[in-house]
């Protein structure tokens, strides 16, 4: 039975209204852009990439890139290694850098295995590390002038698993070394480059060390498991070196560069070559050494140098405001010959 004309007309009219209303509706929103490719990376790869940035870059920038990175940067496994070596590359004072180091340590949640600090830090920071990082295996301190010798000795007992301790351009006495050796029986690698060379004082009084072998002797007596030892610019004599060879029978590598009070021409040199696989001699080149290897000496007059070494003949532009001389000595040879040795046989 055919439909009435009026009914057909209404259907057409309704279809026209529907078509008109649909054409006036706003277009659907465009599809969301695809997520960055790095978001799709496995979590362990993301963590590995971020770890290479260093703690400062992570805290200041990387963790703000996206929610994925934010979560990764709060994962305790990300902070098993804390590298603050590039801290001075940013315009931050010591307090800010210390706070960032605290944050990094807190995020590790006790899983910290290795920490590197450069150009900042004090005894309080070292104490903070020791109280929250009982699993620590590796410590590297560079130019940490505000970390005292006593500060390191006081917290050494909190690092029973420590395997590596590397100290550059910072001071640690025999007492501090002894405390570390006794408290860290698993120590296998030790580096000490405390102050490089020392010369004569301006007031004419020589700043003599009572026993130039005291550091070597405590290393020998308290670090029997050492496999790697670097004593750049140390003032020990053959006596101290013999003690180390006796007390550290597991030594595989020994760096004696700039240790000019040692004589390896005779039997001692032969013993070193037989016992040590990787041996660096006092006069070996320091090419590629990451820290300054210039020789620093005080000087003001011939009276300060009883053997004849004085400022005469030197350009004052070679001295800094503290009276240190930065001469361009050959890395391959002893810059001083025996004419300049004191009665004690060493420079200090």
From TrEMBL:
It comes from the Eukaryota. Gene3D superfamilies: 1.20.1280.50, Ribonuclease Inhibitor (3.80.10.10). It comes from Anisodus acutangulus. Residues 35-82 form the F-box domain. Pfam families: F-box-like (PF12937), LRR_6 (PF13516). Residues 25-35 have a biased composition (Pro residues). This is F-box domain-containing protein. Residues 11-35 are annotated as: Disordered. InterPro entries: F-box_dom, Leu-rich_rpt, Leu-rich_rpt_Cys-con_subtyp, LRR_dom_sf. SUPFAM superfamilies: RNI-like (SSF52047).
């Amino acid at each position: 039975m055919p439909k009435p004309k009026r009914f057909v007309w209404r259907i057409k009219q309704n279809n026209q209204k529907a078509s008109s209303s649909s054409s006036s509706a706003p277009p659907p929103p465009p599809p969301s852009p695809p997520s960055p490719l790095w978001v799709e990376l496995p979590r362990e790869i993301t963590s590995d990439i971020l770890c290479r940035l260093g703690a400062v870059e992570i805290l200041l920038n990387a963790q703000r890139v996206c929610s994925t990175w934010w979560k990764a940067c709060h994962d305790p496994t990300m902070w098993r290694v804390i590298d603050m070596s590039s801290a001075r590359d940013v315009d931050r004072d010591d307090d800010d850098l210390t706070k960032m180091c605290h944050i990094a340590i807190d995020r590790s949640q006790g899983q910290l295995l290795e920490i590197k600090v450069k150009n900042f830090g004090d005894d309080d920071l070292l104490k903070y590390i020791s109280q929250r990082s009982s699993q620590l295996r590796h410590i590297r301190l560079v130019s940490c002038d505000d970390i005292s010798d006593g500060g390191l000795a006081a917290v050494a007992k909190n690092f029973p698993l420590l395997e590596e301790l590397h100290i550059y351009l910072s001071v640690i006495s025999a007492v501090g070394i002894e405390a570390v050796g006794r408290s860290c029986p698993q120590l296998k690698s030790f580096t000490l480059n405390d102050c490089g060379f020392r010369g004569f004082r301006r007031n004419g009084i020589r700043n003599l060390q009572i026993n130039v072998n005291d550091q070597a002797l405590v290393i020998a007596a308290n670090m029997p498991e050492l496999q790697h030892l670097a004593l750049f610019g140390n003032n020990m004599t053959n006596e101290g070196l013999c003690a180390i060879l006796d007390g550290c029978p597991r030594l595989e590598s020994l760096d004696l560069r700039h240790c000019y009070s040692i004589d390896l021409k005779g039997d001692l040199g032969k013993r070193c070559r037989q016992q040590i696989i990787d041996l660096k001699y006092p006069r070996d080149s320091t090419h590629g050494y990451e820290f300054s290897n210039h020789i620093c000496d005080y000087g003001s007059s011939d009276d300060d140098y009883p053997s004849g070494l004085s400022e005469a003949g030197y350009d004052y532009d070679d001295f800094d405001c503290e009276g240190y001389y930065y001469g361009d000595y050959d890395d391959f040879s002893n810059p001083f010959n025996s004419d300049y040795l004191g009665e004690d046989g060493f420079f200090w």
